Amino acid sequence: MTDKNLSPKERLKIPPQEMPEQEPADRINNVDEVPFGYTKELAVKEASRCLQCKNKPCIKGCPVEIDIPEFINAIAEGNFNESVRIIKETNILPAICGRVCPQEEQCQRFCVVGKSHKSVEKAVQIGKLERFAADWEMENGESEKPEVKGSTGKRVAVIGSGPAGLTVAADVRREGHDVTVFEALHKPGGVLIYGIPEFRLPKSIVMKEVDNLKKMGVEILYNSVIGKIYSIDELLDKGYDAVFVGTGAGLPNFLNLPGENLNGVYSANEYLTRANLMKAYSFPETDTPIARSKNVAVFGGGNVAMDSARTALRLGAENVYLVYRRSRKEMPARVEEVEHADAEGVQFLLLQNPVGLLGDEDGWVKQAECIKMELGEPDDSGRRRPIPIKGSEFRIDIDTCIIAIGNSSNPLIPDTSPDIETNRWGNIIADEETMKTSKKSVFAGGDIVLGAATVILAMGQGRKAAESINKYLESGQW
Ligand SMILES: Cc1cc2nc3c(=O)[nH]c(=O)nc-3n(C[C@H](O)[C@H](O)[C@H](O)COP(=O)(O)OP(=O)(O)OC[C@H]3O[C@@H](n4cnc5c(N)ncnc54)[C@H](O)[C@@H]3O)c2cc1C
Fold it and tell me: Which residues pair with residue 357 across a beta bridge?
């Protein structure tokens, strides 16, 4: 284990530990996870870079406030079980968050080690350590079933089994309330299972986390679309004392380009759902067909765009162009995803924007017309505004196009429960602290409230909602 007596100066001299991963040339031929994870030795060494700051600035960057220095210290001391226990005090999905959280925007942004080196990339690799601890527990640890209090006889319906719904289910069940999760799809996990690809988040990990909930006695009903099988009023009439809406942002946005309805044009949601959830990567062994493409254009610069582009490579495309209207610096995707896409051969067409799609005589897409862009002053999002350069149009030959420019809230619940107030984007309005909606006994959180956001923010809202559901059920006061 590491020397406890290392001075801060000595700790600062230790470089960030790289996580071993599959070589790019190999990994584009399979869907296995790209990074292998830290070994024990690497994890202990990385943990020894932490300065154990008294005021723990990293915690303020974590939406669920994990005691980061404490869990890292436990790793440095080789006390891996203890480190998972500390993480799980506030985060029930560490193996997932360790893999997909935008750490460079959150905890690692505040790390004093990164600040000393004037580079967030040189911060303590908190996410990789979180992943190590969670994986270690799954493989070797004494995974304890979270404690559940005696039955209160109260019943809670959770709509949607994404990170928000799963978090609420765990925290409410802990207090002894009965929990039923209603999930529209045939598998649990929301975007974690249908959106984020296997090579970034193995589905077995999501299923293990869900198994813990089942062990606690949470019931999950699949193929159960609320708004179709029951309305929220019907759930309340059936004796549920509270309802949590965690239905996410599953409605794909389009660009409204000429030619967008040509054959071969997919929303990222459809493309990724076919590939991931319906395992089109092993067609014809599985029943799901997907385009066998040669030249693919992906429009967008977020995680969804990177996932689509990297999936297209793994499905055998020869050229995958990622068309993004700003520069690499403004891309909203996690840095690691951009680096991985780049290394795998995704061709970045930066400062370019699609203006139309052209098809052949059979109605299949064959070209994308794009225009070059330059950057102006920052816009409302804080990123520099892209401005088209007149007369700079050009065309690229493609046979598949994937639109990955974001998602909007799923409209079914607001449509079937009009007494739940929504904002102009169709997101449910919920009190920031209690996550109460305008409808008595109904709470909401995650992407359906935030608009397309992140796993950890969805979980953070889930925690707040669960706390106020538990209070509501105890006091009966709305
Ligand atoms: C491709 C992709 C990649 C992403 N990558 C990252 C990343 O790297 N890091 C990160 O932090 N975030 C990422 N995100 C965003 C993140 O996944 C979401 O912010 C998060 O999953 C939101 O959680 P949620 O629980 O609110 O909703 P969701 O995960 O969307 O889950 C909602 C669930 O509700 C179900 N549902 C919907 N309507 C109904 C209904 N009427 N009845 C019953 N069930 C219903 C859905 O089937 C779904 O299972 C990504 C998103 C996508 C699409």
Answer: 368
